[in-house]
From TrEMBL:
A Pfam family assignment: Peptidase_S41
Sorted UniProt keywords: Hydrolase, Membrane, Protease, Serine protease, Transmembrane, Transmembrane helix
Sequence similarity: Belongs to the peptidase S41A family.
Protein name: Carboxyl-terminal processing protease
Amino acid sequence: MKTNSKYFPIIICATLAFGVVLGGWLNSSDESHFLATNNSKGKLNSLIDFIDNEYVDNVNTDSIVDRTVDAILGQLDPHSVYVPPSEQVQVAENMKGDFVGIGVSFYMHNDSVAVIKPVENGPSAKAGVKAGDRILYAGKTKLYGRKWPSDSLFSKLKGVQGSVVELTIYRKSERKRIKLNVIRDVVPLKSVDAAILLNDSTGYVKINRFAETTFAEFKTGLTKLKKVGAKSLLIDVRDNGGGYMEEAIAIADELLKNKQLIVFTKNKKGKIQKTFATKKGDFESGKVFVLINENSASASEILAGAVQDNDRGIIIGRRSFGKGLVQREMDFEDGSAVRLTVARYYTPTGRSIQKPYSKGNEAYLRESESRFANGELFNKDSIKVADSLKFKTPKGKIVYGGGGIVPDLFVPIETEHGDINVSYLMQTGIVGRFVFEELDKNRSLFKNVAFGKLSAKMNASDLYFNSFQKYLSKMGLDVNLRGSKALVKRYLEAEFARQLFGENYYYKIILKEDAMIKRVLSKLK
């Protein structure tokens, strides 16, 4: 997460008289601390030099340093991590919210680059690339018949804004090769998946992460929803692992009245930084619901905590992950970076929602898995809360700290998903691949099918359900779908809608039977 440098002031203290009284002790203390620190740092540097210059075999000391950094950070908290140069570029790009490229979603089908869908109004779409096209060459670089690592393949398609790449594609529907000149441009990486109406007066916004563009995307979606009549708002941060806390704060600011506390942080020196709502927000009246689950973390919890602690709305779902630590990214000269925990954050009532990590990183990560075993995902009464961590909102509602946001209205996992294993399977990339291959067999079957008629076509028979069962078997997955037939057919229909019409249409179908959505809509009647 980003933080502001003002959280880390250089404290210059003590009067001259005080310095005279304690000067001798402070000087000797500072000197010994400096020498001890210097000796420790010098020992590491000297060891690397010894290995470089004297060790009998050639050793990649860079990899030794990387492992050493990982080991040191592993002694801190689970969220202080080292990001090597190879990963840092991709991570930074993902959080930036855009990149320069040709603008297609694709995957390696057999041995070729298959276009799932060009980005709407993106460079490839403008050049004439269509869903189902195979990209054979990027310039003179052959892309088919080879097993390209993902990063290498991306590098062939990305480039400088305004640069031209000649794509040689094979269009299966026309059985011919085509050459198209694509002008690379900025391509957005959306963090808001959907902004749609669930009924005449209820808006829904799905946020998948908090990147640099999230607030702007949210604002655009909210404005659109208000124009078409949204009076109530659902913000879905399920499975949202967080990101930039500033983006979550900005969204909370749109929901809260002026001077209401959103969040505060405290660093190791006890410095407290409070953030309040400011100008008039775009949705300060009207009902608000925030949907969370066990994978909602960090910035998602900041947003949910601000809404809950200010009695602004209702939190629905299951207890969130429990990450209340703030990271600051610090860059190294080689392009790598360390994300170091520099503060804790607290919800407006003063809650820390950070779950314990004293038993080590492995136990910390396994805690989420243990929620299956202890029954918490199925029964609200299984959620363990401590009376010592009890807080009250301004209207007297009891809320708890100590490990995640406990929802106001609990929705168990089995009523949301039916068969858990099948549900998780239906949310993986295997569904997208299956649907692509089904469309790829004969796209003309869907050429004149409008969205309104897709459901009737999909549910006229069990054709695609049966085909998907066979597809899984061919892949060696022994999964019986019969007990979850309705769920499977819904996810298949939604994925067809996504690939044919776009992301919003996926959610229009998938949310129809969503237990949390149903719970919200029942509250609005």
